[in-house]
Amino acid sequence: MQWHVAGIAKQSAHNWQLCKDVGVFGISTDGRKHRLDRVSKSDKIAIWQAGQGWIAIVEATENSRQPIDKSETPWGGGMARFGLVVPFKILIEPKSPIELRFIDYKQEKTGMSVFVLRKGFCSVPSDIGEKIEKVVQASI
Fold first, then answer.
1. What pLDDT was estimated at residue 118?
2. Residue-wise DSSP of 85-128
3. Which of 109, 131, 140 is nearest to 44 (CA)?
4. I need a surface site. Which of 9, 11, 45, 130 has the fewest CB within 10 A?
């Protein structure tokens, strides 16, 4: 099992509800070639909402894959922008986002780099993922 961090842009906060509605998280590839083995079934993904904080921990229920059709990519840019989707189930979803301070570009309590959060989607070391999960779990 690997850990990943997925970010949702501040101006796209409504996308989290769309993800939940269709049951997949879209990974922006902007038409570039991409690795279909990026996320494996049972991997965990920490969801970050820019400007708000941690909003969920989810588990991949399938490997990442190309979207089947446009119904799986309801976000702006659709299939042209989101070349990968990850079906998921929610493990933890706090009532309100968990916001943590950044000190010298690292998030307190988790050690997450602000630069990683700006990437949109990436793998992170297990110890970072576990720290995020602990912080989110403690909030509920």
1. 84
2. EEEEEEEE--SS-B---EETTEETTT--BHHHHTTSEEEE-HHH
3. 131
4. 11
| Residue range 45-63: mean pLDDT, rounded | 97
Q: How far apart are CA 129 and CA 54, in angstroms?
A: 12
Cα angle at 136 between 135 and 140, to 5 degrees? 115
Across the range 82-102, mean pLDDT stands at 95
- β-strand pairing of 121-124 with 44-49: unpaired
- What is the SS3 assignment for 16? helix
In this structure, what token pair is assigned to residue 80?
């042209």
Hey, what are 6's tokens?
A: 């997925």
Name the DSSP class of 50: T
In angstroms, the CA 140 to CA 135 distance is 9
- Tally the residues of the chain: 140
